[in-house]
Amino acid sequence: MTNKNKSLMLLLTTTTLVACAQVEEPSEDPTSGEKTKQTSASTVKEESKETVEHIEDEIKSDIKELEDEIKDDITKAVEEIEKEIKEGIEGTVDKVKETAEKTAEDIEKKVKTYMVKTGDSLWSIAKEILKDVSLVDKLYEMNKDTIPDKNVIRPGQVLKLPN
């Protein structure tokens, strides 16, 4: 029986007890002197009070159990959501990495390169290979990681060329 049903049954039982209580105490009829039985309101009230207190205790216990169940359910739900979020983030990160690697590979395939020869300078490469001296700065920026000084390049270095 569920906690809610237990509580409802206790409440129904109490209501029935109060409505149907027939506590009888002997008393004497003043006219005939015969002993009769009559219901004592104080006895019914006391028994009803005890029953109500018992029901209150049961309901409090049921509420506590329900609160604990709800807390457990919420904790489990939060853990599941956190797990799904983490898995989603990890999947997204993996996809971004894959895309970045593929893009980098595509760029490397499309980037033109030039191997420095004896006597070359960035200016001479821009003029003779790129046919545009104004691209000297762009050539340097594209190759900063391999050229520490704009005025010093060495034979055998491979330079990326702007398209």
What does this protein look like?
The chain is mostly helical and 163 residues long. It has helices at residues 3-20, 41-110, 122-128, 136-142; strands at residues 24-28, 35-39, 112-115, 158-161. It has two domains: 3-109; 111-161, Roll (Membrane-bound Lytic Murein Transglycosylase D, Chain A). The chain is built from four helices and four strands, in the order αββαβααβ. A hairpin with a 6-residue loop joins β1 and β2. The mean pLDDT is 81.
Distance between the termini: 79 Å
How many alpha or pi helices? Answer: 4
Assembly state here?
Answer: single chain
* Global Rg: 46 Å
The low-confidence runs, each spanning 5 or more residues with pLDDT under 50, are none
Describe the structure concisely:
This protein is mostly helical and 163 residues long. 63% of the residues lie in helices and 11% in strands.
Secondary structure topology:
Elements: H1 3-20, E1 24-28, E2 35-39, H2 41-110, E3 112-115, H3 122-128, H4 136-142, E4 158-161
Antiparallel strand pairs: 1-2, 3-4
